[in-house]
Amino acid sequence: MSEIYFFRHGQASFGEENYDRLSPIGVRQAQVLARYLADAGKVFDAVYYGEMERQQKTAREFINHYRQNKLPVPRPEISDAFNEYDSFAVWQALIPELIEEKPSLTKELDKLPGDQKAFQMVFSQVMVRWTKGEYRASGIPRWDDFVRRVNSGIEKLATRHGAQKRLAVFTSGGPISVTVKAALGLSDKMALEISWQLMNASITRIKYNSKGIMLAGFNEVSHLELEGDERLLTYR
If you placed Cys at 36, which of 76, 135, 153, 223 could pair as Cys (CB 3.0 to 4.6 Å)? Predict the structure, then answer.
């Protein structure tokens, strides 16, 4: 069987103008992840990342660490299948509809961008509506299309690389939750619940063969916990 390691990017810059950039904590998380993989003797047959800066920067820390320590590492390739969904477009389109139905949400919105608890409370409602397709807005990405895109990306990797391979994919919480959904046959609702639990710089693994994919590990962060610094344990 072959195995794909899905690495969630390090912490992004929540509340800043350029969210896509890794925060200082995010850079540390990526470095800890890279060191852990090298110390564990993990060698990969291929490395992929999406088009987001935070995904690529996390991968670059891994690649640079391997090269500096003269460890084998393939040249990375971009796959847009593992891009995160456009949460900004979804938010902008659906927030007016939510406020129309629940005017009290404006109190929570007034707390943004600094209050992560308020953001999560509103964002989760936006996402539930989006995944169910219960909105009037047009011209925004569709959840079903996003799911198909990620699943197609996994199928392409499996077809391209075949058996007895270990692949690395640096991506985001959305694609990882869709991957787990496919491996376990979960509902859209459960995929969302999973996405809220995914931690920065975590490791999720699937195995695949001709029969399909199966989950081998989920949201592993022991490499971060061993650092003894709780600031490294983040969700956003």
Answer: 223
